[in-house]
Structures are given as structure tokens and as C-alpha cells.
């Protein structure tokens, strides 16, 4: 018997943007805080590699045992994964001895929407 849970997929209408697109209006202080926290978490090369490893892993989730080969110690990997979770970029679930990580699709969609407007400006 498995303890695995099926995580629900979000429909595009369920995605709540953290911030307006950059060319829509100036951000409020609160919106800037949220966006900065996400981008700051991705500003570290090890965190970016871990985030990419989870995002590109088959099935959209990865066991920490499959992504920890990023050139730093296991405690450092755990620290960086914790920072990505705190920024809202990853969620996790413990299954037995291992922890599985999944990218938060609503947050990634919100980050994409924030940046998408910047590409349409002249």
C-alpha cells in the first residue's frame, strides 16, 4: 500500500499573480517584496540548478536523492531546498525516508506573467 498522494493540477484560471506585469503599473511595496523573495531565491546558482532539476524531472517532481548531485554537501542541498520552499517556489512531501519536491506551478506562472509584459515594451 502506498502513501503517495496525487497533487492537483491548477488550471490557468486558478493562478493568482503575485504582481502585475512590469509594464502594467508600478509595483506596490508588498508586491515588490513577494517578487524579490522569489527572484532572490533563484539568484543563487546552486538553487537555480536544484530548481531546474526538479522542474525538468520526469513527472514534475523529484526525490531529493535524485537531485542532490550539484557539487555541495547534503546539508547544503537541504538548506537551499528549504530556501526555495520558503520563497514559495517548491512544495515537498515526505514519503518514507525520502522527501519529494515539486515546482509550484502557480508561482512559476505568476513569475512568467510578471516578466512577459517586459518583453512587449519597445
Tell me roughly what share of residues is in helical segments: 40-55%
Give the strand order of the largest sheet, numbering strands 1, 2, ... along the chain.
1-3-2
Rounded to the nearest angstrom, the distance between the terminal CA atoms is: 57 Å
Portion of residues in beta strands equals: 5-15%
What is the CA-atom radius of gyration, in angstroms? 16 Å
Order of helices and strands: HHEHHEEH
Give unreliable regions as ranges: 4-16
Domains (count): 1
Number of helices: 5
> Based on the structure, what is the oligomeric state of the protein chains?
single chain
CATH architecture, by name, is Orthogonal Bundle
List the helices and strands and how they pair.
Blueprint: H1 29-42, H2 45-56, E1 61-63, H3 64-67, H4 74-86, E2 90-95, E3 98-103, H5 105-116
Antiparallel strand pairs: 1-3, 2-3
Helix pairs in contact: 2-4
How would you characterize this protein structure?
This is ArsR family transcriptional regulator. The chain is α+β, with helices and mostly antiparallel strands. The protein has a single domain, classed as Winged helix-like DNA-binding domain superfamily/Winged helix DNA-binding domain (Arc Repressor Mutant, subunit A), CATH 1.10.10. It has helices at residues 29-42, 45-56, 64-67, 74-86, 105-116, and strands spanning 61-63, 90-95, 98-103. It has a three-stranded antiparallel sheet. A hairpin with a 2-residue loop joins strand 2 and strand 3. The longest helix has 14 residues, at 29-42. The chain is elongated, with a radius of gyration of 16 Å. Mean pLDDT is 80; it is low at 4-16.
Amino acid at each position: 500500500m502506498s502513501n503517495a498522494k496525487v497533487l492537483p493540477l491548477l488550471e490557468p484560471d486558478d493562478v493568482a499573480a503575485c504582481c502585475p506585469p512590469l509594464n502594467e503599473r508600478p509595483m506596490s511595496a508588498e508586491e515588490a517584496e513577494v517578487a524579490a523573495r522569489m527572484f532572490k531565491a533563484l539568484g543563487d546558482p546552486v538553487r537555480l540548478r536544484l530548481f531546474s532539476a526538479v522542474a525538468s524531472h520526469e513527472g514534475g517532481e523529484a526525490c531529493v536523492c535524485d537531485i542532490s548531485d550539484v557539487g555541495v554537501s547534503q546539508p547544503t542541498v537541504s538548506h537551499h531546498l528549504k530556501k526555495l520552499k520558503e520563497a514559495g517556489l517548491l512544495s515537498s512531501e515526505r514519503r518514507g525516508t525520502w522527501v519529494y519536491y515539486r515546482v509550484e506551478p502557480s508561482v512559476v506562472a505568476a513569475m512568467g506573467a510578471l516578466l512577459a509584459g517586459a518583453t512587449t515594451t519597445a
